[in-house]
Design brief:
Blueprint (H helix, E strand, L loop, with lengths): L20 H11 L17 H6 L50 H4 L16 H4 L1 H13 L8 H7 L2 H16 L17 H12 L8 H18 L13 H29 L18 H4 L4 H10 L6 H8 L16 H21 L21 H7 L3 H15 L2 H19 L17 H15 L23 H17 L12 H4 L4
Helix pairs in contact: 5-8, 7-8, 8-9, 10-12, 10-14, 14-17, 14-18, 16-18, 17-18, 18-19
Length: 518
């Protein structure tokens, strides 16, 4: 095994002081100008070496196998989250693995030399190119135990260019919205292969080429099998640190990942109508810190940001505070929470809505009272919602529906939603450079969606039998298929995020279109 040395040491007379005639011939041949066949001419990209070392271009700078991912528009724009260029050196394979007929005779002798002379040709492509090394590592994982993946799929789908493209798609469309990795200290060179494979399969889901599920699903299963075998629950990618750096980054990362898991659990309630896994009211985890802390590039900066921002509260304590309404004319918020923390809270409130709508302990047999004068405001509810599918209109109708429901359970949930909005509007601490740009830092559409779900449940007696909104308020396991519910809920959320008139909303076609920054 050949290893890199930081310094060059001169050999002593006892250490191979004599050279064989073949070695002399080789050194004399290497001193001559190389022939065109020796080293293929590098493709002219029009960029200087400094530019090539600083930027990661989408198209490969070398004559590698053509990528199967198509080019994205404006892909050369500066990404909010990208990989450290020093972690992705692009070293081309200038020399082939086997000597060609055009090479000098002395080069052919290398294959016959003893181990003493093998250091001249011992650097493999994986050693020169860490990205290629990761390709080989994840290909080895895909060949282990688990669902079978066709060899041609493994070879073509996980080549160097596809891996780079998928990792960039992961950074833009997932990491940018759900920051699981600590970007400032991420290093692909030291990243575990199973994590790189997980990033690859997530990024592949955002490609503009629709790939068969039979390609991606076995790769996902391999990731899960490997994690279970290694008994690894959560892994963060970061370079080794000591002392305060390890504690601070680990603490913020653990809190962030725990909140992501809660939000993913809540997503099953919102989009597929399934029960939550966690007992959310008993969780004692801390809510996420501010983005300026998570994005700190050093332990000292992270500590300063943590000390200069409000300390994060626990989830259970914050929920208990939301149960008590704040005074009407109070200008200051009762507590300060980051945008990501507010996103977690509104997702937890969605879980409470799911439990209330499915187990409806305060169910009134006669439903909403038609005798009330306020019921006139909910007549033709389908048309009122569809004609003005905006947050303010949904809130106005929801208040009337909850009032007519006369349910203490839904009344308390609605009060907690209103208290959430009061805290959100009165916040003094904000991540001004990040909010409204990432999916998890823009919780208002999820708040409007929560109001909509309350409206559809409490006002279900005012909906027509064939209404498109009827699918979301059938309790007791009588929902439509989770796939239909997921698609419809995603369309509603997309309309609320885009803040456009209903007739101008484009059809939702992919995850990326749903998570486009406002």
């Amino acid at each position: 095994m050949c290893q890199r040395n930081d310094t060059l040491q001169q050999a002593t007379p006892d250490e191979h002081s004599t050279s064989s005639p073949q070695m002399v011939d080789i050194f004399e041949a290497s001193a001559q100008p190389p022939s065109p066949i020796d080293i293929p001419a590098a493709r002219d990209t029009g960029n200087s070496l400094a530019e090539q070392a600083t930027h990661l271009h989408d198209d490969s700078q070398f004559n590698m196998q053509q990528t199967r991912f198509t080019e994205e528009e404006h892909f050369n724009n500066i990404l909010m989250w990208d990989f450290n260029t020093f972690s992705l050196p692009m070293f081309p394979p200038f020399l082939s693995e086997e000597p060609s007929d055009g090479l000098p005779e002395q080069r052919k002798l290398l294959s016959k030399e003893t181990h003493t002379d093998s250091w001249l040709n011992c650097l493999s492509l994986e050693q020169l190119d860490p990205l290629q090394a990761k390709c080989s590592a994840i290909q080895a994982l895909l060949q282990g135990p688990g669902p079978a993946v066709p060899e041609n799929v493994v070879a073509m789908a996980t080549d160097r260019d596809n891996l780079l493209k998928a990792l960039q798609l992961f950074g833009r469309n997932f990491q940018n919205h759900v920051p699981l990795l600590h970007a400032p200290t991420f290093n692909l060179l030291t990243a575990p292969p199973v994590l790189v494979l997980a990033m690859f399969v997530v990024g592949a889901c955002y490609a503009d080429i629709v790939r068969p599920a039979s390609y991606i699903f076995p790769m996902v299963m391999r990731v899960l099998i490997h994690i279970e075998q290694q008994q690894v629950i959560l892994t963060t990618l970061r370079e080794p640190h000591r002392g305060a750096a390890t504690f601070l980054i680990s603490r913020i990362a653990d809190n962030g990942i725990a909140n992501v898991l809660i939000c993913q659990d809540a997503a099953s309630c919102i989009f597929t109508g399934t029960a939550p896994t966690f007992s959310l009211l008993e969780l004692d985890i801390e809510l996420p810190s501010y983005e300026r802390c998570w994005n700190s590039r050093s332990a000292q900066t992270c500590l300063q940001n943590l000390q200069s921002t409000p300390s994060p509260n626990t989830l259970s304590l914050t929920l208990s505070r939301l149960r008590t309404p704040s005074p009407l004319f109070e200008e200051r918020p009762r507590f300060e929470i980051s945008a990501f923390g507010m996103f977690t809270l509104v997702n937890v409130l969605h879980c409470l809505i799911w439990e209330a709508t499915h187990y409806d302990l305060d169910l009134i047999l006669d439903g909403c009272s038609r005798d009330s004068s306020a019921s006139l405001l909910l007549n033709n509810l389908d048309h009122q919602i569809a004609s003005d599918f905006t947050g303010p209109n949904i809130v106005r109708l929801e208040e009337q529906a909850v009032l007519l429901k006369s349910s203490s359970t839904f009344g308390r949930i609605d009060s907690m939603l209103n208290e959430w909005l009061s805290v959100w509007r009165r916040r003094n601490w904000r991540d001004t450079e990040s909010e409204d740009l990432a999916f998890t830092l823009n919780p208002m559409p999820f708040w409007w969606l929560a109001k909509l779900l309350l409206l559809l449940h409490c006002g279900k007696d005012f909906l027509s039998a064939d209404s498109e909104f009827n699918m979301a308020n059938k309790a007791g396991g009588s929902f439509r298929s989770s796939q239909t519910l997921h698609g419809k809920t995603a369309q509603w959320l997309a309309k609320l995020r885009r803040k456009q008139p209903t007739d101008q909303i484009e059809k939702l076609e992919s995850l990326e279109t749903l998570m486009v920054p406002i």
